[in-house]
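note to self: the first set is below, dont mix up w the second
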Amino acid sequence: MKLQLRDLLGLSVRALGANKLRSGLTMLGITIGVFSVVGVMTTLSAVRQSIDTGLSVFAANVFEISKYPAIRFNGNWSEWNQRPNISPREAEDFSERMLERGYPATIYGVDSGERVSFEDRSTNRTMRIFGTNENFLLTHKYEIALGRNISATDLEFNRPVIVLGAEAARELFPDQTPLGKSVLADEHRYTVIGVLKGRGKRFGENLDNLVLTPFPRWVANNWGPWRSMEISVLAPDAPSVPLAQDAAIGQFRQVRGLLPEEENDFELYSNDSLQEAFAQIARVVGIGGLLISAIALLGAGVGIMNIMLVSVTERTREIGLRKSIGARRKDILLQFLLEAVALSLLGGVFGILLGWGVGNVVAAQMSVPMIVPWFWIGAALFVCSAVGITFGFFPALRAAGLRPVEAMRYE
């Protein structure tokens, strides 16, 4: 008796449905293994896409000098913490030196989690108050929507002026112009001189939750020995960045008074270095996801072999009966292989759907369009099929090798 493939598929599905709980528990291991890969890779794709489109923390021809690295992943924390803070004097000295060489620099400090108020209105406590100079817009890719930027005169005379981010302007002045109004920021009075254009979100963070104040006034109101300034340097264009970085390292070492044999006690990074750092993290996370998946799939494969061996034992009389009425050895072999593959693929499909869903929830939080990781979906289906065939072959071979007469006498 020759059975069609669809007949064998029907027999396999009915056999799995007869033991729903056992089949479900076996599929769970496959689901976890596939979920760990597809979920991790979808999430990494979302983060990478968000970085590629929005890691423009700075312009392409801008780099940063800081006490700490931008991404502190598995690093030497004790060494970083022992570095001296960048003081306002060092930041100003460095800025003047770089300007003489044709490289404008932004120096800034920031207070996060602050509130800005006007009369009876207040923003949420999510505002960042930057104390900075006139170059902040150049290096951080902001534009003025209304009024003007902080000027060199504001810095020289330490004027109490402020430039509002788009979010602060919306919350405090929904129906009137903010220019010339007096606002309270971090318990200090400032006169509004400008409003920034909105930039939206990056990595789920609102880029418009900020206000800018003159650097000297911010230092007078907020500076403490625990703080460290940040510095952004603007090169003429992207190809000039390496030359500007060399100049910056040399000038900052002179500001710090470092001897030639002493190592740098500060960090220098740009968009490229941030992307490279993320790529390293992504590789580590990806390898971790693959290891977890491999362990889960190995356990699931053993589970598939076990359930198929039990199934062969329970259905010995059925196998004998089918053989006695003409079922061929390869029909029995194929039927049990199909059962193992179907069990593995069903678990894989659930894992793909779950991983894809979780990954795209992360993508939505980062304002990234929906991602379908076709390569990893295809790889997951291939691996699930391989697991089903590999771990289902021995039970299928055992079922195909049963003798009809002995099988029918089995109790």
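second set (the one i keep forgetting abt)
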Amino acid sequence: MDYRPEVINKLSEIYSGSHGTFLKNSPEIFNRHRETAYKEFLRLGIPDRKNEAYKYTNLEKSFGYPYQVYYSPVPQDFREAEKFHCEVEDLDVWNMVLLNGFFPRGEEGLVMLPGGIWVGSMKAAAKQFPGLVEKHYNKYVQGENDGLVPLNTAMASDGLFLYAPKNTAYTKPIQIVNLLHSDQDIFAQDRNLVVVEDRAQLSLLVCDHAISPQHFLTNTVTEVYVGQNSRFEIIRVQNQHNNSGKITHTFIHQERDSYASSNNITLHGGLVRNATWHMLNGENSETHSYGLYLADKQQHIANFVKVDHAAPNCNSTQLFKGVLDENSSGAFNGRIMVHKIAQGTNAYQSNNNILLSDAARMDTKPQLEIYADDVKCSHGATVGQLDNNALFYLRSRGIDAREAKLMLMFGFAHDVIKNIPIEALRERIDNLVQKRLRGELSRCASCAIQCN
């Protein structure tokens, strides 16, 4: 039986029943796109495995729970969020906590950080910077026949807004902690916008945690604009429990001489799918996309990456690595598109995976689509086991079998971790990865969930 009509009908009832609430409580710029996006969602539906981008990812189980849609928090919801603290020592960042996609401050206003960078909720941004939000909101999404993107546009109520005006730079990374907490199974959708104007710099660290054991499904859309001669970095650390489903869509649009990087570190989660689109729209722009995923039990982790070289003399890198154990599964779908105008392109793509059990499964699909003739492009993918020769070498040096395997796996994973520019976070992720590979529960100190 196809589960999608039932789920779509349920979502349609929620959308229709909450339509007045959406219109009343949301800025006009959001509401203007809702009806068109909703019709597009009905046309596309929830992606199934006939959709090439979801060929190896089955969403049926994640959409099968009786979720309550979370679109209007009340003050007491934030009590648990107020107790949360980040356990990474010496992490010199500016920190803000979101609960189920909402800020505790709500629409009260934005915060201006040292250096002139603004951070706060999308609702507050639509009031304080209406022209800016109008200019960028819903401008960079690429549906790729993915109905979950217009579903977010139709139903998201709030999210993160970050704005770095021209010539601004905040020397500390901005840390956003996304907490999921409820006494019900919930479906949360947040909509984020990051604007980094010309000659500005911004680093964003996003940490995803679930702090109650209910079933959660999150559908997140993030749009990022990186202006000329600007620099933007986003690091996403995902450490949720096995009852959580996390689906992210990140669209990074770059102009001339800009630099951007994204790094998705997935330590834990029932179902995780990260989709990242990089649009190199200006000459001499550069982008790097990294990913590390560790999976066991019945977990499924998927990464979809598309890099569009739409301008000459641009550089891009994709490096994704995974370690899969027990009955877990993973998927990688990476694309490099080089348009005819994009002469002088330099693009590299690599996906490497280690399977620790006969039941673990990895599907990988690297792709190149090139229409220019003056390019340097390469791609490759491997799925295998630990190197027996390397294991023999370590054993011959007196290292026992278990430690030798752990050393090889950690060295394999560190190729991605070393690209994290924040030293304290890099060291902390090294520590978490080592614990994860050892089978220890590497959860935050404030989380009492046991992921059995």
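remember for set 2: Residues 110 and 120 are 5 Å apart (CA to CA).
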